[in-house]
Amino acid sequence: MMVIRPICQNDLKSLYRLAEKTGVGFTSLVADETILQKKIDGAVRSFSKENVTKPTNEDYLMVLEDSTTGEIVGTCGILAAVGLDEPFYSYHLGTITHASRELGVHNAVPTLILNNDFTGCSEICTLFLEEDFRHSKNGQLLSKARFMFMAQFPERFTEKVFAEMRGVSDENGVSPLWESLGRHFFSIDFKEADELTAQGNKQFIAELMPNNPVYVNLLPKAARDVLGNVHTNTVPARRLLEQEGFRYENYVDIFDGGPSLEARVQDIRAVRDSRLCLANIGQPKGVGEGSHYLVSNAKVTDFRCILIQRSVPPGSALTLTQEEADALCITTKEPVRIVELSPYSRH
Amino acid sequence: MMVIRPICQNDLKSLYRLAEKTGVGFTSLVADETILQKKIDGAVRSFSKENVTKPTNEDYLMVLEDSTTGEIVGTCGILAAVGLDEPFYSYHLGTITHASRELGVHNAVPTLILNNDFTGCSEICTLFLEEDFRHSKNGQLLSKARFMFMAQFPERFTEKVFAEMRGVSDENGVSPLWESLGRHFFSIDFKEADELTAQGNKQFIAELMPNNPVYVNLLPKAARDVLGNVHTNTVPARRLLEQEGFRYENYVDIFDGGPSLEARVQDIRAVRDSRLCLANIGQPKGVGEGSHYLVSNAKVTDFRCILIQRSVPPGSALTLTQEEADALCITTKEPVRIVELSPYSRH
Amino acid sequence: MYLVRPVDFADLPALERLAQQAGIGITNFPANRERLNDKIASSRRSLQTDVVQPGDESYLFVLVDTSNEQIVGCCGIDAMVGADAPFYSYRIDEVVHASPQLQIHNRIPALYLCHDYSGTSRLIALVVDKAHQNPLAMSLLSKARLLFIARYPERFTKRLFAELRGESDKHGYSSFWDALGKHFFSMDFQKADYLSAVSNKHFIADLMPRYPIYVPTLPEAAQDVIGVIHEDSSQSADILLEEGFEFRGYVDIFDAGPTIEARTESLHTITQQKTGKALSLTEKSKGAMHLISAGHLEHFRVTAAPAEPQVAGLAVEKETQEQLAISAGHRIQWVEL
Amino acid sequence: MYLVRPVDFADLPALERLAQQAGIGITNFPANRERLNDKIASSRRSLQTDVVQPGDESYLFVLVDTSNEQIVGCCGIDAMVGADAPFYSYRIDEVVHASPQLQIHNRIPALYLCHDYSGTSRLIALVVDKAHQNPLAMSLLSKARLLFIARYPERFTKRLFAELRGESDKHGYSSFWDALGKHFFSMDFQKADYLSAVSNKHFIADLMPRYPIYVPTLPEAAQDVIGVIHEDSSQSADILLEEGFEFRGYVDIFDAGPTIEARTESLHTITQQKTGKALSLTEKSKGAMHLISAGHLEHFRVTAAPAEPQVAGLAVEKETQEQLAISAGHRIQWVEL
């Protein structure tokens, strides 16, 4: 069975192995033991905090484990609040209107405005699943388990949560936006800039990036075309978030123009529709048929989330198999949270 | 019975009477026959357009009529797209972070950035109900009838719709934000500036307002405190929109700092939950008891919307009384749209 | 011989012909009969007004080929631009962005819309018929204005500037306009250029970008022409640069042609010009070529002729005296060319 | 008598005492022993270096009361600020916003963070013991620097500036800081002032506002002190203003004290100073008070004494010669005070 659980100190090697597979551009997971160990330390500390009343610098990194083999095959994370240590930058795609009634000219000019508007906001991030395991709805489990955690512990996150999506670049990693904008100000390569940012070093952005709005209509078409668009490989991830209620609100990455998607936690479909019920352990009907459901427990340190399938919609009490209950680290009559895996799963 | 319908040429006198009652600061309805006649002409033209495939400059102004007396007691409107003739200005409340790792200082500074981001966006506006009729859920009918129209004709509006809410000012009409910001640049009174804007004359904003972001932390506390807050009288209207799914997304009025609330049309509760069904005319059960429902017809020029009450939730066919059907301008088997008046109306 | 004198209404057809020849890019000299007539009227009114300090006066002078009394050139001075509507330019300022840690130190030029030349006197529209574009005629026409300024300093500001035509091809295509202005004006260069000459300039404030434009983000073709003088204007530019005009980082908002400026008192013609009596020469002069002017305001005349400076004044030929409508003993102003 | 000479390591205790007296608001003269020692070292190194063009040299001079050999004042010159970290100021620029229709024409002053003085020589830290703040001592100390610059022009830039201390009360409270800087630095004025003196100035770029500040939006108390000189500095300010320094709209980013600047070549002391031979006077001089300097670099000395200009040089008293460690025939530099 595939189980989502908080990362633990024993996972360093597995995490390193995953990091090696992410490839260029996946800056939140770099194959560097020191950095990864720090990440694990942070996550362990975050999950063990008991009485969190408001988000600060917690980093909830989780892993997807194949419980039969003990193998770690994916990760996902939530940062409770970005930008509190190092500034968090984005471009806001705004509009400035220039009009002359006299000449009958009316131009609505799009502009890129540098900002730190996401400062203090929760971010879902670090989503990676091994290629061999991209089947059986593992991707959805990995991504949406985070919403179950947020639904259970909303006080640990901000009202609004966002996700940064990878922007457009070609097979050589060349980003059209970077080439016509960032390059002129940074005098370094996209890759280098991206890596510096990944290491949490953003000082240089304040130092080198121009403060004034950039007129989008003056950028070459290739650059304009990528604003707010995702890399081909990221299209499914974007669709998944949009189905959950995430929206593009005109914030883009300052380097590659990739969109940030945002939602109010309470408006996320999986949060809104999920409900708590008490678990029974026994022989449920219609296991392995019908709709998929996400089920999680209600614990922080021992948080678990799994996927179950039932032909009969579960009611106010949910019957789980012993294996499912074990995977969720619960015994009978303990509360669990359940939601349909996807908005259209009632087939 | 209280009925919402499009305004018509005969309504000039009634509209003038309403305009007289709105008082200072209600700039979208001024007691000036020429201006009001122009508004009516625009609305009549908009409602009579048959094949609208995308929003342009339509102005859907509706009135609330007491069908027993023929009296007009309220208005509400939707602009299909603002800012296409004259620029539409707002302030975006953004964040700029200044951090020095060396000194351990980290400041997230709020800024006001002048923009025209709502250009081309649909706006709900011009909501006014006579004081004597502020009972029997007339206010909700007036406000939400617009969502029924939008639900039926989404192609006539943009994906996102917004509403400007009146900001904070004291009993003498003094706005703390204006006093510490606008006044320095406009050299005229708040009232005068507000009136110019109401007359669609916004040239002077481009001419006189500074382009650069304004640091909110440098404004006096009284001014900072009103950003994004509404006038006491507007609190109920704000709550009503928020219950329908409208959200404050950090856009405020450039003069008084009142918030703009926005929503995707498809996410508005009354739009999302409303459904089409066929009308039967007869003796429905439980009339005048139980929950309130908004019911509208599916017509443009002859759009109507009323409030009904039923103790039994209507199913896929809705039985209406002859009086209700007449008020809706429909006969049996014609399609009608229905939704619960409020998210919590299933008592 | 050539003579420079204030324009008269009778010169309108000739001016129209010159304006058509001049073509695009000389925004302050549009081929529009009404506007030209206005300009003539304004010049005459200005000369007839008793001026204490510079205001909205403008002065227009014509170059006459005295052999046939044909008008072959034209130039002018605005006493002060920006009196009614602001006068816009781009100022090129460098923004410094440095990261000590990355050892990067970037100086990024950016164009800032400004009206720093509002309130300043401007030399305008030097236009000379192709057949007469020789150094003598060009210098005479250009410098005649400076003699006028030297004679009536109270009518002008202490700073003086001139806009030089920017790079554009013979079809009026400007790569700078194409990369920048076009996006904000939604019209072609010719039209914007024309409108800026004939209408009030308010539409510039309405339509131009309000934030600085970072030069490196513009296409190279546009970057290349910033501050570059159109080759047709290089001759008149040289005359002014030799006079002491300097480029201070301001360019035209449409075609990025350079604006050059000077303190009036430091210009060569103005520091070197002398005032004194006209003396008579009985024979052909062997002296150097001089610019010589005479006459008050409406009767102001300038010609270029050989002449001989003497202690008592400047000795000029009979013909020169006739051109200037003076005789020996009259007060004249001169400078060696 | 007073004497000005380059600082030496032995002067450290005296400098420390002066710095403590000077107090807050003189950011380039902090009461920090290590930093003062660094400054002395830097000055000595600079004087020993063969300089072709200005770089990061700095020169520190002390004022000696020769009656008891006490150090009673101190001043300096930075050859060029902004060499390693940019030098920040606020430039006050007017933004014009006009609406012809409403007949409104607003000129709104705004503060722009800039480093326009980066790359320029700076006069720093004139500090004089209270008991010696008389016109003679103050002028001698201030102008001694200008004689040094006149003697070694290759060591300095063509432009020279000085920052004048802005308005703050005796507790170091600055209403300008309170209205502006405090919000961005999250610390009090004293601390920011001190940090700016002892640390690299990178934190300024990190923390200061990146967008212009519109002056009318500041509290009136803050507006009132922009460009106003602290009364303790008015005497030293007057000396520089009389020399030809001018305010060009730049103020300090912390206390809004004015920055004044001049072209070196046009300063009174520099244009008027003469070089020639020292001549001997056998009796007390009846001549005017002069600044007189002698000695090369490390041995540079300036004093103020009565002296008599003659064709062959400047006649000075025996005592003055002793002070300057010269005798008749030595090369000296002088200017009438």
From TrEMBL, chains A, B:
Transmembrane segments: none annotated. Pfam families: AstA. Keywords: Acyltransferase, Arginine metabolism, Transferase. The lineage of its organism: Bacteria, Pseudomonadati, Pseudomonadota, Gammaproteobacteria, Oceanospirillales. GO terms for biological process: L-arginine catabolic process. Coiled coil: none annotated. The keyword Heme does not apply. Its EC number is 2.3.1.109. NCBIfam families: arg_catab_AOST, arg_catab_AstA. This is Arginine N-succinyltransferase. InterPro entries: Acyl_CoA_acyltransferase, Arg_succinylTrfase_AstA/AruG, Arginine_N-succinylTrfase. One of its GO terms (molecular function) is arginine N-succinyltransferase activity.
TrEMBL record, chains C, D:
It comes from the Bacteria. InterPro entries: Acyl_CoA_acyltransferase, Arg_succinylTrfase_AstA/AruG. Keywords: Acyltransferase, Arginine metabolism, Transferase. GO terms for biological process: L-arginine catabolic process. One of its GO terms (molecular function) is arginine N-succinyltransferase activity. Pfam families: AstA. This is Arginine succinyltransferase.
